[in-house]
């Protein structure tokens, strides 16, 4: 099998410090973005992408072609010691986000977050634990044991998902390579094989900054958008029904009957993982409310949550920490006017992050010659300006 590229974050910069061109060119709402218009605008947050692209031609289960990867989000450099308050919300549950039962019970998380494909959940979990054991050798001996947060979307449309090509060692190296600052988006990391509205999609991100009189807080959102089953005509960007202009153009290519996708189930109905970070000091109850507001941005994009979709959202605060020696950070934010603006920031940043995932992704051909086109902004811009 021909090999075009197997890229680890460290060697090809896919943790990357992307240029401004990687950001969505569409600004949603009235709140301004942070410097990189991404989740890493929240101080302390680190992101990394591991991208694996190998081979072409017919699917050989367990061998390739490979179109997959993993994305890591760290709330800080040492979440085991500096445990951020967290809350999560399930819009539809045909998907997996591990560790959420303990988040419900405790109100915090104590590990990095890793996103990957459906069948690599276990391997990613193993990699997170291996990484944490290096950081904290007393885990499981004189210390507690972690319950990692690993979430998945199904990339079987383009990828040899049976091959489980993301290893525990991959994830360990990915976590070592995670960095602050700008990062590559689109068909990278966990988003390598993802689709939305019949277009190529993947990783998208955006941020919003509140004015000083409302706390000056930053809200950052990262999505892994795989809402491939949402009808193309539903695609809406900044209130404009963009998808209707592409009803008969840039359609996916399925070269043979063998390459047709299943009509039902996880692959057919798609999924989306949404991670929300903020430096607002909020507890688990309020963070769950933040996670709920992601549904507003998702709905504005034209997505709907089907029976077999996995739509799972998690929010964390980088300043309300439940450390080993007790709670630390500024007093909790309780002003309703400020919290309302944080909710608005979540909805707007989620909508823009979905746009970012579409505009940043590039046309990709995967297993069995299946091709999904990227959404070209130069063709969308006139529709928005009109």
Could you explain how this protein is built, in words?
The chain is an alpha+beta fold. It has one domain (16-385): L-amino peptidase D-ALA esterase/amidase (4-Layer Sandwich). The chain has eight helices and 15 strands. The strands form four sheets. Strands 4, 9, 10, 11, 12 and 13 form a six-stranded mixed β-sheet that branches. A five-stranded mixed β-sheet has the order 1-2-3-5-6. It has a two-stranded antiparallel sheet with strand order 7-8. Helix 6 (284-300) links the parallel strand 11 (271-278) and strand 12 (310-323). Helix 3 crosses helix 4 and helix 6 (284-300) crosses helix 7. It is globular, with a radius of gyration of 19 Å.
């Amino acid at each position: 099998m021909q090999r075009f590229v197997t890229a680890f974050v460290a060697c090809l910069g896919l943790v990357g410090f992307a240029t401004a061109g990687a950001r969505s060119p569409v600004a949603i709402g009235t709140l301004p973005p942070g410097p990189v218009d991404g989740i890493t605008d929240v101080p302390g947050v680190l992101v990394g992408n591991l991208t694996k692209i190998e081979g072409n031609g017919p699917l050989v289960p367990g061998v390739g072609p490979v179109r997959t990867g993993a994305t890591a989000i760290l709330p800080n450099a040492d979440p085991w010691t500096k445990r951020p308050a967290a809350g999560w919300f399930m819009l539809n549950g045909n998907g997996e986000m591990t560790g959420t039962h303990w988040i419900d019970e405790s109100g915090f998380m104590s590990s990095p977050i890793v996103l990957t494909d459906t069948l690599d959940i276990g391997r990613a979990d193993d990699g997170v634990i291996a990484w944490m054991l290096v950081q904290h050798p007393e885990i499981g001996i004189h210390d507690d044991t972690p319950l990692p947060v690993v979430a998945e979307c199904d990339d079987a449309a383009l990828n040899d998902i049976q091959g489980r090509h993301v290893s525990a060692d991959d994830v360990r190296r990915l976590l070592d390579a995670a960095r602050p600052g700008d990062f590559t988006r689109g068909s990278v990391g966990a988003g390598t094989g993802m689709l939305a509205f019949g277009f190529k999609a993947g990783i998208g991100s955006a941020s919003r900054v509140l004015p000083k009189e409302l706390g000056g807080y930053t809200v950052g959102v990262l999505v892994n958008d795989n809402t491939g089953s949402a009808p193309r005509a539903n695609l809406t960007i900044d209130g404009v029904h963009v998808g209707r202009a592409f009803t008969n153009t840039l359609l996916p290519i399925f070269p043979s009957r063998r390459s047709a996708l299943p009509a039902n189930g996880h692959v057919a109905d798609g999924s989306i993982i949404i991670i929300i970070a903020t430096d607002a000091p909020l507890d688990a109850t309020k963070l769950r409310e933040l996670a709920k507001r992601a549904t507003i941005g998702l709905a504005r994009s034209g997505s709907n949550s089907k029976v077999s979709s996995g739509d799972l959202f998690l929010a964390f605060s980088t300043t309300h920490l439940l450390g080993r020696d007790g709670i630390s950070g500024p007093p909790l934010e309780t002003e309703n006017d400020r919290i309302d603006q944080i909710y608005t920031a979540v909805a707007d940043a989620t909508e823009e992050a979905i746009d970012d995932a579409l505009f940043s992704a590039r046309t990709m051909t995967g297993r069995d010659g299946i091709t999904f086109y990227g959404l070209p902004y130069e063709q969308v811009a006139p529709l928005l300006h009109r």
